[in-house]
Amino acid sequence: MLTRPALAFVNHVLAAEDWARDRLAGVAGQTASVEFGSSKWVVRISEAGLLEAADARSPVAVSIRLPDDAPLRALTDRRSLLSAMTISGSADLAETLGFVFRNLRWDVEHDLSRVLGDVVARRAFQVVKILGRWPGPGNLALAAAEYFGEEESVLARRLEIGSFCSQVDALREDLSRFEKKLERVELRSA
Description:
This protein has 190 residues and is of the alpha+beta class. Strand 2 and strand 3 form a beta hairpin. It has 9 helices and 5 strands. One of its GO terms (biological process) is ubiquinone biosynthetic process. This is Ubiquinone biosynthesis accessory factor UbiJ.
């Protein structure tokens, strides 16, 4: 569903960076799976150093598991996103992918200039940068995350999730003990 747009975007960014495509071309033909939430994308690295969709049943050289809050981390704290990934498989391919995606940058201003013209794109980009610093010590993305987490309760905090999981575990253990007691009572009454 999102595989094509995501790959198109990543390949668009890669197309502007010769060094990144050259680095990926060195591991051409290898596949990687990227898991996020309940979805799994399997991609193959082409000879040109771009990514292409691969069959989900293809053997993968490296598996990458993104944390569930990856989109938010991508906007607010990219380093924490990279450190929260779980990677298994080929060390060479993992290192190559890690290096490329740690250092890959999207030239937003250049893309805007193609649509809006150089002057308007420059001004728009400056306004976005100012808005990004607007709420004080954080930025607009952090403010949005706080709003949706605190005010709207759309996002669950890590502490709340941990507490919920602990409660579920305790309930499961209580139910197991109750079932064993019930079996003993039934055996005595039979």
